């Protein structure tokens, strides 16, 4: 379903017993979005944009461009390729929690190899040639202290650099292999346990753009609560979630709106003419900063509430469906079965 809608209150909360950390996280997101923090009755319904109104598109990757099997739905790849060919003046840029190297399959499927990108939630900005233009890291002491705390709690810690993912702590879980789970999102993973890697982090030699903390979903609220009782969210780091079973820590002053601001200036496009796609809480910053925000049918509660529009799920090619509704509204695909190839 593609719809222009006010936020509804029908969406059920994730838990009836919510820990303070979850409430605080959502409260902070509402503060970011305070100019949109109105009741569903007060929010205005926007008409679907016209093609001439869209001058730049930014899209999340996991859960948005990628389906649940980490592939690109053909409706999405075909729509983006049509856009690039017939509307070359409208850049389509990935803005993601992933590394650029982990987006290569998406870029090949969708014809985005020549596009810049914002990675690790905007901590790293890449040029169209794939070179790092800017990079911001979490303070080394914070990284070391968070890692020490989570090791004691038998939790996994994966440290992201611009070109590698490094396992420095791994939960001993009876049935879940968090190393393999993380590898599914970012294959450039190394096991750094038992090495001098954390000494290099402490010295500042390593720039940590993100800390990735996968865990059983039922434990997430308690761990958020505990971390934010030891550290200060918004000063030591910014806590966010792209997926319900993964806590992510990024530099305190970073979110995807920083990447949006950068690309807005780079292409000289007013944010009102920027369209954004996403499904996670980490997308809310760029939703607020853009003139046209689209949440996926599989989106978490907060982005679904604050977006201007909703589309189908990632498994149904939701991004492609919405892009087609704007740039080729009369198009009817022969089939939505089969998957894109990066070849």
From TrEMBL:
Region (Disordered): 1-22
GO molecular function: magnesium ion binding; phosphatase activity
Protein name per the record: Uncharacterized protein
Domain of life: Eukaryota
NCBIfam families hit by this protein: HAD-SF-IIB
UniProt-listed InterPro entries: HAD-like_sf, HAD-SF_hydro_IIB, HAD_sf
Pfam families assigned: Hydrolase_3 (PF08282)
CC terms in the record's Gene Ontology section: cytosol
PANTHER family: HAD SUPERFAMILY HYDROLASE-LIKE, TYPE 3, PHOSPHOSERINE PHOSPHATASE
Comp. bias intervals (Polar residues): 1-14
Lineage: Eukaryota, Fungi, Dikarya, Basidiomycota, Wallemiomycotina
